[in-house]
Write a structure and sequence with these properties.
Structural class: mainly alpha
Radius of gyration: 23 Å
Number of strands: 0
Distance between the termini: 48 Å
Order of helices and strands: HHHHHHHHHHH
Shape: globular
Strand content: under 5%
Length: 318
Amino acid sequence: MTIKTQKYISATLIAIVAIGGFEALIYILNLNQPFIYLQVAFWIFAYLVFNVAFYYDISVKKPGAHERARLKYVNISRGFLRSIKIVWTVSVERFGHFRKWRHLRQWLHFLLVPAFIFWATFTLIYVNFGNIRIQQLLAMLSSVALIVDFWFLKEAIHRGKEKVDSDIFIALSMVKIYAATALYAGAMSILRYYCLPPLYFSSEVFCFSFLLVYLALYLHRKINGPNIAAALLIAAVMSAIGQLVYIFWGYDYFTAAIFMAVCYHLMWGVFHYHLDRALTWQALLEILIISLLIAGMLFSVTNFKARILNDCQYYLNG
């Protein structure tokens, strides 16, 4: 079976699980069954974790483990003992890559974006209880994002490079922007839903922003002290912006999340150009103008006078 056929099969399975899973979650939640909603979400996510592990396993395993084990114990006369030793040796060698930190770390990094997308969508569907149109839109967008992510994830694992190629990096970066938007929207919506103070949101924004930048650095093979410091600085600035957005933005946390994603993309874009030694005044001006245009459009449709600081009833309506 060719790698292209494998990718088509994998994409089809992910599409079935993502679309079917989100539709099932919407149906269960709107029946007012939150405990079952959480249980089903856990098992869907467990499947996604298994998928990432399976993709990684079949790409880095060493073929011929059984033959090597059979030759190693060929001198043992007792058949049962030889079989036990062969099975044990094959198992240890077959899954030995998961005991090496280098492989385990790479697998965990590849799992971050699917986890972000899934649990952010889980949160947004929950907050929009009964709002079928928004729930269906979230399910569709997140399903597409997961399919694209797993498609290029399998390609990255198959190529087996420490640093992913530029075509995969660009595709995964687009998915990462969607993941960032979903994360900010999910965090803001659930915290406002339960009337929690802005400090919680700024803390979550700090963690999410740092992890997103860190993941990009990992894919770039650019993890070092100065770059980690820069990632922390970007996360701190995003945290401060998040504090202000949580307090002063209006009802619509979706536009707030898009604005947060624009701010993240602006800072990461500048940092990315710097990492590639391609930061020029022209590149800086282009990304700044695009960010200002999107921010301007968001400001034009946002009613900042609609905020209510001491009453959280409006959060139920998003």
